[in-house]
Design brief:
- By secondary structure, this protein is mainly α.
- It has one domain (12-98): lambda repressor-like DNA-binding domains (434 Repressor (Amino-terminal Domain), Orthogonal Bundle), CATH 1.10.260.
- Helices cover 63% and strands 0% of the residues.
- Helix 2 (28-35) packs across helix 3 (39-46).
- The relative contact order is 0.14.
């Protein structure tokens, strides 16, 4: 069973970001202020109407209140672009390099 969002227009990235904001009680307005980007960009990315840019991901990772890392956010974006299997494959590669099972 896929854990990707089922809503039309939503993406794995936007769904996870929206859930994180909701869990923290943070508004999109506050997020745009913390990121230093326009409110429309933040709204469009969180609604799935726009793909997050590299700049967006870097600025999002710098918002300490979210507790999100750049690699985690990049994984969300890659999941949208290549499907969730890419994450499973990446985890296996990292485990193999570290000698883990």
């Amino acid at each position: 069973m896929s854990c990707l969002p089922k809503m039309i227009g939503m993406s794995y990235f936007s769904d996870n970001l929206s859930k994180r904001l909701e869990n923290l009680g943070m508004t999109k307005y506050r997020l745009h202020k913390l990121m230093g980007l326009s409110e429309s960009i933040v709204i469009n990315v969180t609604n799935g109407a726009r793909k997050p840019s590299e700049e967006f991901i870097k600025k999002l990772a710098s918002v300490d209140e979210l507790g999100l890392t750049y690699p985690e956010l990049l994984a969300w974006k890659l999941t949208d672009e290549y499907g969730e299997d890419i994450l499973k494959e990446a985890i296996e590669i990292v485990k193999a390099k570290r000698g883990l099972k």
